[in-house]
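Obj.: predict assembly geometry.
Materials: sequence records (below).
Method: joint structure prediction, all chains together.
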Amino acid sequence: MANITIEKTKYECAQLPKRWQREEVFRKTGITVGKVDLYYSRGVRNDGSLVPPIRQTASIFKQPVTVYRTQESKVKTDYKNGNQEKPKQLMWEKRLEGLLACDTDGYEFEAMELPKGIKSVGPNVNDATVIRSVATALHVSSHPVTGQTGTKSLLEKNPGVFLDPKQPLILGVNASDDDIRRQEERVALARRKLQEALKQ
Amino acid sequence: MANITIEKTKYECAQLPKRWQREEVFRKTGITVGKVDLYYSRGVRNDGSLVPPIRQTASIFKQPVTVYRTQESKVKTDYKNGNQEKPKQLMWEKRLEGLLACDTDGYEFEAMELPKGIKSVGPNVNDATVIRSVATALHVSSHPVTGQTGTKSLLEKNPGVFLDPKQPLILGVNASDDDIRRQEERVALARRKLQEALKQ
DNA sequence: CGGAGTGGATTC
DNA sequence: GAATCCACTCCG
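Observations (raw structure tokens):
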């Protein structure tokens, strides 16, 4: 027969503000043994079902570096055969669908909006995925970020052939002189605001 | 004007057992900054006047090894010219007079007694010095430890001539058959005791 | 130095 | 007397 003793409980409670948790801890030793201490803490949202994404690409792919065992056991890059960058997995962004960034208190950041000039491309790609795709390209890529080069219909009919994994999931964008002028204006405005803020 | 803040104190305290020390350490950072941690430790006896002995022999003496600077900067022994052992300083034991061995808590070990058969030799040599001399010879010497070979009067009249620096400061000892038998008995007894102790 | 966990004073 | 709260200890 199992002798079950509940020693610790932690749960959200209707009387408490949203996401606050009540924790009951029994004292296990000492002259106050058996008494209960209550702790209240704001919990971090965690569905449990949200498993963080893991690398799914098989290791049969060429690796970005070639390992030479020298006397000092260091790793040397194989410059001779060109940049052997590991091929990007197509549509890797979909592995992050359903996940949301949050601050340290568990509050999710508000969704960002896709600028009107940007047209998403690809089968069943939603706005959040496209934004992730663009943001990653801007942060990580060493090439100009210009978008896909094919037509929308071609790209969605046969993405395995026509999608360029080095470009984000958007149709090609061309910056007009007008776009450049407006961006320059925005930068100038931001600089003025910063200058004023620094004066105070 | 100096702003003096005492951050650390260490002192013996009347309420504490002899030689125990109380140490107060202020926490300097973190959310518990300013709080005090107390440490108690048994102090080590230290007269300050007891300066440990340092090597006093001049470097004009031949050295036990000859240094060759090889590529690996290692030291090679000069076997070719025989064992160039550095001459021992006569009466080096006297440099340790007044010093006592102690355990890690500072408690001095009890004095050892010189066996009755052992006769010390040398000018102004006390028992503690003789014991050190014998113990060092037994631990360090690669030769049989038999004591000095001259007579007591000769040795003390002109130690610079007659003292053998490779032998301890005792008159020659001869182990009789009786001595050997008694030592064998002691060893046998010690082994029996060990065997009994291991049984339990 | 932080944090879990307890003693004990204080409040209800 | 129970509930609550805070200070403190002690260990990693």
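Conclusions so far: The CA atoms of residues 27 and 110 of chain B lie 42 Å apart.
To do: check interface contacts against the pulldown list.
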